[in-house]
């Protein structure tokens, strides 16, 4: 039983071409929920208490405190200000960009029909043309070694 070169090439390329595919998970954004979350922030709420406990590294008793220290007011200002949420989102975008920059580039295999104007006797006017684009990521990393 003879195995064609095409079969061997397909069997060898298939795992390599499918190994670097990324998966996208959609996370819908609800503006109404975001606004409600920001507007529901209160200094007397349990979320503010948990935030201060985490940032100050000690329990604040009684809650809400009768007298606020400068450190407590500074942390509460960070907690209540919506620009902090924007900055955290931008940080997460930058972190995701760094992760995706380190990923391997996806290879591509293109198969297209081609028309031959003057085929040999008995040959079809249509042939299949293929192109494999396999990025060489080592080339781009040579200057870092």
Written overview of the protein:
- The protein has 145 residues and is mainly alpha-helical.
- The chain has one domain.
- It contains six helices and two strands; from the N terminus they run αααααββα.
- The protein has a two-stranded antiparallel sheet with strand order 1-2.
- Helix 3 (46-56) crosses helix 4.
List its traits.
6 helices; 2 strands
Characterize this entry briefly.
With 145 residues, the chain is mainly alpha-helical. The protein has six helices and two strands, in the order H-H-H-H-H-E-E-H.
Blueprint (SSEs and pairs):
Layout: H1 5-18, H2 31-39, H3 46-56, H4 70-80, H5 82-101, E1 108-115, E2 126-133, H6 137-140
Antiparallel strand pairs: 1-2
Helix pairs in contact: 3-4
The average pLDDT is 79
The helix fraction, in percent, is 40-55%
| Structural class category | mainly alpha
Radius of gyration: 29 Å
Largest sheet: 2 strands, antiparallel
- The total number of structural domains is 1
Total DSSP E strands = 2
Oligomeric grouping of the chains: single chain
- Strand residues, percent: 5-15%
Query: Biggest sheet, strands in spatial order?
Result: 1-2
Order of helices and strands: HHHHHEEH
Query: What is the count of helical runs?
Result: 6
Q: Unreliable segments (pLDDT under 50, ≥5 consecutive)?
A: none
General shape: rod-shaped
Distance between the termini: 47 Å
